[in-house]
Amino acid sequence: MLFCNASFLLDKIDETGREISTRGYKDVTFDDLDFNIIKLLSYNSRLPTIEIADKLKTGTNTVVRRINRLINSGIIIYFSLNLNLEKLGFHEFKVDFFLKDYNLKYKVIKFLEKNPYLTYVDHTIDYADLEVELFLKNINHLHQFIEDVLTRFPRGIRNYKYFQTLNNLKFFQLDRKEI
User: Fold this and answer.
1) pLDDT confidence bin for 18, thresholds 50/70/90
2) Which of 52-57's residues contact partners 24+ apart within 8 Å by CB, and which partners?
3) What DSSP character marks residue 69?
4) What distance in Å separates the CA atoms of residue 110 and residue 142, rounded to the nearest whole number?
5) Distances, alpha carbon 158 to alpha carbons 150, 155, 164, in Å
6) How many degrees, rounded to 5, is the angle at CA 20 between CA 175 and CA 43?
7) What are the φ and ψ backbone dihedral angles of 71, each rounded to 5 degrees?
8) Mutual angle of helices 49-56 and 32-43, in 10-degree steps
9) What is the mean pLDDT of residues 18-34?
10) CA 108 to CA 115: how far, in whole Å?
11) Strand 130-136 to strand 118-123: parallel, antiparallel, or no bridges (unpaired)?
């Protein structure tokens, strides 16, 4: 999976994505303290370590060591900010691309990751070859995005399907009630 910055919100376009793979990591053991740290950070990734330590009744140095271990082991991949992009006039769209020429897969991905509205590209099996998520202004913006991809790869894309997310009923966040 390739996560990209929503660089349409920035002055400078960031064309680099961050490759996230579930392969290559060893299983990591963690205890209740690690899990509670993860819960708190999933709710607010900017929570100061001193507050985490106070809430969990442990030392700040312990929290810092645990967070660093969670980062180094690949459990915490990055810290992010969750925005309500609809209030900024953007809507979530997903596009499934079915490739005709699989040799172009990584060229298509490189092209896609330059798009400032892209939030992720997922390599998938069984259904679509690439699943893409974007935040765009409207359906016309989506059609322009698809047209750009089809124009750039006229013999590479066999088909596509798109969806607009109307409402996210559940977004991943660990339950804070248990802490």
Assistant:
1) very low
2) 55/179, 56/179
3) H
4) 19
5) 9, 8, 21
6) 20
7) -70, -50
8) 130
9) 66
10) 11
11) antiparallel
pLDDT greater than 80 at residue 46? yes
Beta bridge partner(s), residue 4: 17
pLDDT (mean) for 50-58: 97
| Mean pLDDT confidence for 33-45 | 89
Domains in the chain, CATH or no CATH each: 32-72 (1.10.10.10), 84-164 (3.30.70.920)
Instruction: Tokens for 127, please give them.
Output: 């259904």
- Do 113 and 121 form a contact (C-beta atoms < 8 A)? yes
CB 139 within 8 A of CB 35: no
112-147: pLDDT as tens digits = 988 999 988 988 887 899 999 999 999 999 999 999
How far apart are alpha carbons 25 and 15 in whole angstroms? 26
Two tokens at 173? Answer: 């966040």
Neighbours of 170 (CB within 10 A): 5
